[in-house]
Specification:
By secondary structure, the chain is an alpha/beta fold. It has eight helices and 14 strands.
Amino acid sequence: MADDLLRLTVLGSATPYPRADNPCSGYLLEGGGARVWVDAGSGTLGPLQRHAGLGELDAIWISHLHADHTADLLTAYYGLLYADVRRPAPLPLYGPPGIADRLAGFLTNGPDRSPVEAAFEVHELYDGHRARAGALDLTSGAVSHGMPAFALRAESGGRSLVYSGDTAPCSALTRFAEDCTLLLCEADSSAHPADAEPVHHTPGEAGDTARAARAGRLVLTHLGRDLEPAEAVSRAAARYSGPVEHAAPGAVFTL
């Protein structure tokens, strides 16, 4: 792949637990000579290895600390420290505040804290956080999910991919995604409960966000288990005139 292209491979897009044929949220982002594992949901480490091993990644980026976006960090830790993976240094891990302690809390089984930092070079995200992997620029923006949560904007060669992470519709995401080449947007909710503050998009709202942000293309991901992909795409397309697709496991989107 040419370094000035961006390529997104869907490792999984299910929530809140894997389907038989679809792991939870996880993507391989390639561009600028770099490979980044974006969200490490349950089951995504397996299909990741069809494309890149843990020793070949340049970074991991995590949107928020719910298990359907982070659980495979636990097995990645064992792979990095105690198996056949060889790296010259810990793997850069970008995630919300507290991510290292969250991992250590699960992994530690005795009086001594598990050496999370020996496996991962941890960088805590904040609104406006910027990082670089190869020639790939990664910017994080805070979004609305009832907990620290971030969207990702990846840019290379004049192309931009924005991943919403998990979030309710919010002006912060719309501004963050302005004029992006592709918006990968969650659509977990078929409808919002009347008695609860929204923390996810519906498919129609994903269409609204894409339209307001002037995104060139919309890919729906993280569909709730009561949403069929074709119906979700149809509902988003009713409110956004650009191309709309579903992040089916194994799908590849090249920009």
